[in-house]
């Protein structure tokens, strides 16, 4: 078996973020990645407020770049959970943050008013009760493009479907909700990629949590203690890796690496 990429050879020591649930630790670097795409006085739309964790991280990472952040959720219970966070209440008082109950498939926002849209842990997760997740994704995609300015950016995440991988022996059951909360309905990257390409002029891809062809996950640490096998995630596993870098590793190491999750950065909506 080829050696794993250098990024996974770091000691599995974690910083203060290690006390967070696994799912939050996984999305944390994604929220921090968004700062690269924030303009000064950024008008921002966050789709999928959930419990407000992402909203707080977006504000903390913004470094004063965000003028207004509107975070929406279709579920009023989720908005109530977010409002229970003291950090969010403080921002609401300062009028830089707006929490709104809204359906992302039909945004009550004017055209060309947003610089940056984040759609994190919604596709295949927030839409898991949908009758047709792919159709809903297309509605949200079109609505996001509509409200974005001509030079706007959409950042989204999803879990890829098994059919995208050449090795059909890989079993996704290994990464169910019982395995650190890495859940979500998998969607086909090829289908999503076609949709994105038809609506945005430029798309960059980042992979997260790489899996090898034989199903091994370099970022997953296994050890045996008292005849019991324990597992935990190396924090390095959650770092978003550019697809171009993944391709380099494949050529250099003679192995195939497939991200369990994809992060897409779509820019310049076609108007």
TrEMBL record:
UniProt-listed Pfam families: Methyltransf_11 (PF08241)
Source superkingdom: Bacteria
The Methyltransferase type domain, residue ranges: 45-156
Entry GO MF terms: S-adenosylmethionine-dependent methyltransferase activity
Protein name: Methyltransferase type 11 domain-containing protein
